[in-house]
């Protein structure tokens, strides 16, 4: 969508406004609107909307009636006011106006006589309604009449693709939870929900011609961490359920883009119909996360199978785009199959990557005959991009640059930045996910038109989307935690003009939106606004000096931090944080940030300066051993529905480090250990894993001091201070402890906790290390 035209601005007398960016910023900053509108003029006076206020729509205008109905539903939930359609003087009016150009554009005028929304398209009316809903719920005054300032807004989005990806294949989400996400996407004018419907771990779309895709492929047995395994995980959506969802989403301006992932990520397909896999073997539905070897068979019968699936898919999903994956398809099976190699030769192709491009072209051409367009992940570029395909760029921006410059439409979704299963903060109470933090600010500041796309090719950038992959997002609440509030950043990044975006303004405007989401029943992460604590110097320094110096901060640097040291909850009247606090060990700090209205922006967090607490490191405090890298934050079992406990793990070395352990203070240790299922499909990355050759049947836990120093300086020898045989996974619980003593040493040294269990055995990690003091010197 283009920017608002000057002709339309003059119709409302806005030419002076559009010439002054400072006037624009000042007026927009006063409004609780997310995303930021294209143009705003504040007038004089207000209009009050009370309970029972009437909404008027043109007779027989179904789009306007839908916008009014959606508006009433949001206002009822978010403000506690009932809006009615019927007789009486209308407080809010919807009307068509052909001068508002673009299906998603709208005009909104508030004066002392009422509120009027006009648009030429259905989505424009809906987005105008969502702006009205936000204006009617600017604060926490639930159930009270809403006073709206006089204003004029003329608005349209910068990009036509403003999306989220919901992975329902790895962990199935009940259909009602998808409805909830659609509702809250609409509230911030996001318009594309990408449903990842198939993967190695599950097939979620009912295909009537191939019922085993869901009967068999829809369910998996979880991996074992020792002893009996848990119940099967799975589920699927019927076509009738999805048709109803599509209709519901369409009324809220949201198009659903379905994804059937091929030729890789196809183990569930192979389990259900082995005749369509490369070697016609029948694996179990996958329970490992990552890259599996099973590929779809591109023989003629396989191509026809996919076309048959597509026939049913397009009957359910009427949108323009069908996503066919194409990612992470390691070609081992194709390389080793005589039949596939013969097919490559017969087609006159030179590589397996070219075969994938040929396959994509078959499906793209087929979809074109049905009036649809194919889109895939950027790997479909590797063998030459078929003319019919569009690209979703996830491996950075290179794929988008290359495809757009070739004249193909692209959607930006680069990893890790727009991967919403990445954690939102480094807070110790963060939930499951990947450990590379992608903050609210980092996502907000992303620019969807990458450097390198020629100016005349920028039109091929359709927009951007954030992806929530669900290997580690299990429950609906965890999915919501990943989406919100970062969905608001994606909404503004894709809707608002680049030169009008301002993060400080956004933080003010997103606070009311967070309140609306919570009143709508969403779990919203507060990680960007919660107080984090940083002990100045090492823990050993604090223990030796018998004082702790603690700095407080928030990730977004928003609001005023207020704190207590007497165990009470902080309030807007508590002391304001001015600088690092110097405390005697034993004091617990509790702190939260408060906005200008005195409202807490996040739940209070605590920091214990007691000596026992300073000697304890939890999984969140541990580091990777030398040469390693912490990757993931995972639950105790792959399908655990509780939000704790969770563990930071290092996939390739199975080792964690307690940094700067005060070994002159500590004389003993207790390490809490968790045994997890080893369920990571690393494909060719398995070469990175270290095998430590266990000395006992099930391996050991080795505890060493000076491990980091020894890794840096080969003349230094690590000191083994503990060796513990791991128990039989089949009979032992999956949480247990080991304790040992520490010899007299000097100063701070890293402690490493290395597990030597066989690579075929379950995976171990450290939950917590507690050091205990000896006699003082």
UniProtKB/TrEMBL annotation:
Transmembrane residue ranges: none
GO terms classed as biological process: carbohydrate metabolic process; glycosaminoglycan metabolic process
Domain Glycoside hydrolase family 20 catalytic: residue ranges: 159-497
Annotated EC: 3.2.1.52
Keywords, ordered alphabetically: Glycosidase, Hydrolase, Signal
Residue ranges of every copy of the GH29D-like beta-sandwich domain listed in the record: 548-602
Catalysis: reaction(s): Hydrolysis of terminal non-reducing N-acetyl-D-hexosamine residues in N-acetyl-beta-D-hexosaminides
Domain of life the protein comes from: Bacteria
Pfam hit, one: Glyco_hydro_20b
Beta-hexosaminidase bacterial type N-terminal domain segment(s): 32-156
Active-site residues, Swiss-Prot/TrEMBL: 328 (proton donor)
GO CC terms: membrane
CDD domains xrefs: GH20_chitobiase-like
Record InterPro entries: Beta_hexosaminidase_sua/sub, GH, GH29D-like_dom, Glyco_hydro_20_cat, Hex-like_dom2, HEX_bac_N
GO MF, one example: beta-N-acetylhexosaminidase activity
Signal sequence residues: 1-25
Family indicated by similarity: Belongs to the glycosyl hydrolase 20 family.
Name of this chain's protein: beta-N-acetylhexosaminidase
Organism: Sphingomonas xinjiangensis
